[in-house]
Amino acid sequence: MGKILFFADVHGNMPAARALEKEIERIKPDDIWFLGDAVGKGPENAQAVDWVRTHSKHFVKGNWDDGICRDYTERRWPDSEFFCNQLGEERIKWLEGLPLEDEVLIGGWWFRLIHGRPVDRLYQAYDDWDELAMGFQSKVSDREYHGYICADSHMPYIRTCGLGYAINTGSVGNSLGLPRVHAVLIEGEIGSEEISPIRCEILSIPYDNQAAADAADKYPDFPHADAWKNEVLTGVYSR
After folding, report:
1. CA gap 184, 73 in Å, rounded
2. Buried-most residue among 100, 113, 132, 169 (CB within 10 A)?
3. C-beta separation of 232 from 179 below 8 A
4. For 75, left (φ over 0), alpha (ψ -120 to 50), or beta?
5. What are phi and psi of 185, to 5 degrees?
6. What letter would DSSP give residue 190?
7. What are the tens digits of pLDDT across the range 124-150?
């Protein structure tokens, strides 16, 4: 049996990342997957990318990662200046090279791994079966998947929908609803084609929300600072 940790949506929130790091040290997973969006929304993007690169073994690109990379040279979006200047060319190139989807075999079941957007749609906890079923269709493979693990909605969930499991990691740094760190831990026979039990749980970890809000004040040019502070303190989105 092995344990795989899946997390996503750090969004430049280093107090939240450090809280997850402590949990990683306690759990000691055998493998760690990052499912996108290290950057955007939050104030400490370079640090977040470096942290993700250090603490993950596999990576998938998210919609904010993709959007900021695309805007690195064009700067069509007014907020790009802040994020691109923080990241610099080397980090941008690294994010740019990440795959949009991947897969993993656990206990005889193949799971498709995506962020959600930009390769697919935004999958929500309240979607109906037909909407969730779309996530089983890969854009790069004709494999028959038994489940998928995504992010993007910033709300964790585990759903069944006839074809298998639809799982969302929730967000590390910008959770909607409950302003805590969320991630998913799956335990099973990693890489085995034999059908065997799988254990799946949602991690909910407290962190120093006030420190995440205060971090915005370190960067005078950080856009939408008031919205960020409200979101990390309350879990209610301002924009």
Report:
1. 35
2. 169
3. yes
4. left
5. -120, 125
6. B
7. 999 999 999 999 999 999 999 999 999
| DSSP assignment string, 178-236 | S-SEEEEEEEE-BT--S----EEEEEEE---HHHHHHGGGG-TT-TTHHHHHHHHHHS-
Is 44's pLDDT higher than 80?
A: yes
Give me the residues paired with residue 204 across strands: 182
Q: Which pLDDT belongs to residue 74? A: 77
Q: What is the DSSP letter of 97?
A: T
- Alpha-carbon distance of 237 to 158, in angstroms, equals 23
Residue with tokens 């979607």: 127
Please report where in the chains the tokens 């989807």 appear, as a residue.
101
**CA 20, CA 12: separation in Å to the nearest integer?**
14
- 3-class SS of residue 7: strand
Q: At what angle do helices 45-55 and 14-27 cross, to 10 degrees?
A: 10
Distance of alpha carbon 156 from the chain centroid? 10
CB 169 within 8 A of CB 151: yes
Instruction: Using alpha carbons, select from 63, 38, 47, 74 the residue that is nearest to residue 174.
Output: 38
In the chain, the amino acid numbered 141 is: S
Q: Which of 178, 124, 169 is nearest to 150 (CA)?
A: 169
Which residue type sits at 75? R
CA–CA distance, 116 with 218 (Å, rounded to integer): 31
**3-state class (DSSP) for residue 162:** coil
